[in-house]
Amino acid sequence: MRNSDHPTVDTSEFLLAALEQASEAVVIIDSDLRVSHFNAAAESIWGVAREDILGLDAGCLGLTCLAPSSEISIRRADGSRLRASVSASRVEIGVRSSYMVFVRDITTEVERRERIALLNLVADKTTRAVVVTDRNLRIIYTNAAFSGMFAYPAAEAQGRPADQLLTGRFTDRETLLRLRRRICDGRGDGEEVLAYDKNGDEIWISATVRAFRNSRGRIKYVFALLSDISEQKQLRSLQQLILGALADELPLTEIADQLCRRLALIAPAVAAPLLHVAS
After folding, report:
1. 230: helix, coil or strand?
2. What's the burial of 169, exposed, middle or buried (CB within 10 Å: 0-12/13-18/19+)?
């Protein structure tokens, strides 16, 4: 078949037909800033028929800033509002110039961003450390309390495995295995774990861990709430020491000596004057 036998297709008509099928709203604005094309997706976003828009000033659609990229608030015909991303390109055809504007509804994305910003604000106000990891326990998010507790800035902690970053020589591996099993079983019970900060100092923490799953039931994120219980553990240790000494019927002077020496390990500032009195 000769080329002349093929039907001739008008390029402009073909492009307009293609734009009509686009999933994003497409608005073409002429050199006088009037709407010359308004596709079906645009009708859906603004909630108006193209017959009511064609030939009008683009400002009636809220398209007053034809920057390459921007966000606008759209008031629909029914009074509802939505947020949209706008991408505009200037097109020169001969001596005429037009703007091709692509508009996408991002209301859900904006609401998600606002919720995340609010959660970050709330998380940074709590005194307990918050850690969010992926399914492989690599850190995605930490709050301000985490940085204060473990001395790791958020940027330094991000991407590192939480079970390696916060553990050390005397961390009980059986406790870590129990935590992993509870994550897999969907239980959010707490565990007491000996953790380590950036400087290698020991911190006893109470860890409450919960897994969040996707629609297929697979773990997507792991959320952990960590509380510093070092002081409580130290007090318990002192209580056990005293009760054990009393059970062994040790003299009070020896009990006091053991108590002062234990205090010297966990609270030197408190123990120093007591040791001085004892001597």
Report:
1. helix
2. exposed
